[in-house]
Amino acid sequence: MSEMLFAVGILGVVITIVAWLIIINMQRRSSEQTRAEHQAWERAQEARLQQWKTQQERQFIDFKQELTTQIQQIQKQVQQTRDEWKTWEEKDAARSEELKQAYQALMTRERMEFELVRLPRVEDIPLPAKEASPNGNTSFPWQPANFQNARLSERDLSSRYLRHADLRDAQLTNAKLFMTDLSWANLAGADLSGADLSAANLAHADLRGAKLTRANLLVADLNHAVLIGTNLRQARNLSVEQLQSAIVDSTTQFDADLPLQTSAIQPKDDKDGSTNQSEPLDETTLSALSEVKGSDKSSLHS
């Protein structure tokens, strides 16, 4: 009986052990399955995380490229705007300069027209004013006209009172200056080509470097007119008597066929066929030239 009980006890112990082993095995399998599922979940999470990172990186790269493109476009637009602004400023500056020059030219032209309108005629000037002192002081209320660098070509200034006028470098080609009073006027560098100076008063006028080619000098008064460096080639109706009373030197240019028969002016043939004075000026002529220069400075200051 006891042996049976012992055998039953052993069998129960064995069954219990087997049962525990089965339970332990089942728990181990369950634990391994749970661990495997957890690892699979972790791997899935890592894969999703990596995929999200890759996607974020791709989106960041795309965003960066798009932002870079937009920045470049903005910079290009800004540069284009700057260029357009600079171009506009240059055009505006050029336009302003053109308007300024046009305004200055208009004012110069208007001033010249005003000067021309107010020019009195010779016959309207009182006789004492005509015989005024060389420095320009007269009893007649008159301010010498200023036509420096003026364009007066083909203008009719006949019988106008231009005594002591500033006509330096003026353009007077083909101008009509019949009986015009140009005594003591400063005509240095002026272009009088083809001008009609018949019966004009050029006494003591400064014609240094002036051009009088083809000008009509019929009975023009050249008494003490300064003709140093003056071009008188092809001048019409120019006589020796007129040159005798003028101030000339070796730089004065006139035609070779001019019949010079005086001791005051000695002809000298140049290679180009012109005839110039070669002898020095006498004391009377030098004194007159100094007087012309002194009156020139006085008229400019006035």
From TrEMBL:
Record's compositionally biased regions (Basic and acidic residues): 293-302
Q: Which InterPro entries does this entry report, sorted A to Z?
A: 5peptide_repeat, Pentapeptide-BTB/POZ_domain
From the UniProt annotation, give the residues forming the signal peptide.
Answer: none
Q: Which UniProt keywords apply?
A: Coiled coil, Membrane, Transmembrane, Transmembrane helix
From the record, give the transmembrane residue ranges: 6-26
- What residue spans carry the Polar residues bias annotation? 274-288
Q: Where is this region: Disordered?
A: 261-302
- The residue stretches assigned to a coiled coil in this entry are 64-91
Any single Pfam family the record assigns to this protein: Pentapeptide
SUPFAM superfamilies of this UniProt entry?
Pentapeptide repeat-like
Question: What PANTHER family does this protein map onto?
Answer: BTB_POZ DOMAIN-CONTAINING PROTEIN KCTD9
Protein name according to UniProt: Pentapeptide repeat-containing protein
Q: What is the lineage of its organism?
A: Bacteria, Bacillati, Chloroflexota, Ktedonobacteria, Ktedonobacterales
